[in-house]
Amino acid sequence: MSNKLVGGVKASLFVAMAVALGACATTPKQETAPPAQTPAASAPAAQPPSSEGQAASTTPEVISSYEVNRGDCLWTIAGQSQIYGNPYEWPLIYKANSAEIKHGPDLIFPGQKFSIERGASSSQVDRAMHYAKTRGAWKLGVEGSADRAYLGGE
Hints:
By secondary structure, the chain is mainly alpha-helical. The chain has six helices and two strands; from the N terminus they run H-H-E-H-H-E-H-H.
């Protein structure tokens, strides 16, 4: 009898993992082109480099839009350094793209294009992170009351 119980627990864990992984995009990954390379350092410069140009080269490239790839979910997108660098900020992407994300934040699809909002206030970031940490139970493909409350600003 204990073998049946253990088997049932294993099956439940398997189903839970499948549901969790199903929340991420699952069609073939589309490769993106690498960012354009700057001329080699040994190439003669037309003008002497300015301090502004030097500062720009040391900061990571931030992007204002993102195309969903296979395996992506809002958590992994938000965690990328060129997005927010913090996965708990995924609700910012959800809120900015709620018209595109029609079936709740746990169901996105490859090929969807999301705008990445910049300049969120510290209170907006704090609210998004609080929502991400306290959202509670969710169901794949269903926008729940907590999701609607977050989008509505409650």
